[in-house]
Amino acid sequence: MKGKCRWMLVLVGLLLALALVACGGGGGDNTTTEPSADNTADNTADNTADNTADNTADNTADNTSEEPAATEPAAEDTGATGSGEASACGPVELQYWNPFTGPDGPFMGELVDAFNASQDNITVVMTTQSEYYTQLSTAAASNTLPDVAIVHADQVATQAYRNVLRPIDDVVTAAGIDGANFPEEVWNAGQVGEHRYSIPLDIHPMTMFYNADLLTAAGIDGPPTTGEEFAAAADAITDGTNNGFMITSGFPIRQIFEMLLYQYGGTSFDEDGTEAAWNSEAGVQAMNWLLDAQKNWSQPNLEVDAELNAFKGGTVGLIWNGIWQTTNVTGAGVEFDGRATAVPQIGPQMAVWAGSHQLTLPTQAEPDPCKDDAAAQFISYLLDNSVTWAKAGQLPANNTVRASDEFMAIEPQASIATVADYVFFPPSVPGITDAYAPLDEAVAALMAGTATDVQASLDDAANRANQILAENRDNYGELP
């Protein structure tokens, strides 16, 4: 009987030992830590390793694999999830809106397709909208805004105050985007109040287009770069049949006036954007230069696009218009040697009017950290691969891309890109485009000859603009 009891005690002991082992008893290691780190590294690598063109994503994958424990604290510090977290969230779909209804649209589509092909867990659905800002306002009212959207630089503050856009400081940090890698003015265009609301994708500056055949026939070796050279070239070409330079009383005459205003040392508004400043001595100089240019080299009271049509007809030597006209008036767009390059410096300092497409994150009722992380990766990809976008006729805002051999091989964009450090943009004030309307009218009237007193016209335009700015401050109120 005693022997049977001893065997029973041994059997019970064995069973207890097996139970302790099965439950993890007796060990000091936390068995969840190592698999968690491995999974984080694996998920990050799956989400980013294939994206060889996206340096930011590649660095994230490498760093996470080497030091997986740093992944979660980094996400907490920035307010974003980190690239590994996007994979942990599962597949993410981003809705991306833009206004690229012209020939630039397919180039953006190419970029989106390439990004999607590089991803395992992120899919971007691109929608190109006409009546773009109306569509954004409608979507904001119904809480159906996209996850990522393009906004023009002069609209960033307006859309932020309308609560269409939200601050993206954390997303910029998570994406590793550094403002030092962009021209200062185009980077500053995305700052509203104390927060960043957008990241510049490109710069589209005022550009000089020239008929190289007419310049050669007039004994001019190359495009003018200074005011003296410009006047000499325009004089040499103007002969009763051809016009050396042509300007109209319509778009983009106000933008050309602004460019000259800044070249003569003026500004359109005061530093904080509360008052118009174009009725300065520099403004009078800029306007008088335009009127003299019209008298000496152009024709009076021309309607919008008249200069483009005359240039394409081969009877104009020089015109200024946006870079977006490149395919229209150079290369296969004309039957002569039409070229494009940077605008000349007419005044004592270089300055160039420009616009910019900026990448933004629209307001969401409940922001999704997974989508924000995916958006950071998508935005980084667009910036790093914007040489493709340059082929659409834009200058990449990213300094590294503009300095690359691949971009420098793209003409005329590479020649035009010398102006990137001299561009200027409106102050980040809501409704700022409204305040330009009186200036548009004043410059057009002076060019058309229906107004003749330059100082009085600019003064009146400034006074009316100041009223609009004051009304806008009341209407827009505080930044959300």
SSE blueprint and pairings:
Layout: H1 2-22, H2 33-48, H3 55-66, H4 71-78, H5 83-89, E1 92-98, H6 105-117, E2 122-128, H7 132-141, E3 148-152, H8 156-161, H9 169-175, H10 184-188, E4 191-192, E5 195-196, E6 199-200, E7 202-211, H11 212-217, H12 227-237, E8 243-245, H13 253-263, H14 281-297, H15 306-312, E9 316-322, H16 326-329, E10 338-342, E11 352-355, E12 357-360, H17 369-384, H18 387-390, E13 395-396, H19 399-402, H20 405-408, H21 413-416, E14 423-424, H22 432-435, H23 437-448, H24 454-476
Parallel strand pairs: 1-2, 1-3, 8-9, 11-14
Antiparallel strand pairs: 3-12, 4-5, 6-12, 7-9, 7-10, 7-11, 7-13
Helix pairs in contact: 2-3, 2-5, 5-17, 9-17, 13-14, 23-24
What can you see in these coordinates?
With 480 residues, the protein is of the alpha/beta class. Helices cover 48% and strands 13% of the residues. Strands 7, 8, 9, 10, 11, 13 and 14 form a seven-stranded mixed beta sheet that branches. The protein is globular and about 70 Å long.
Main beta sheet, described? 7 strands, mixed
Helical content band: 40-55%
Ends distance: 86 Å
Backbone structural class: alpha/beta
Number of helices: 24
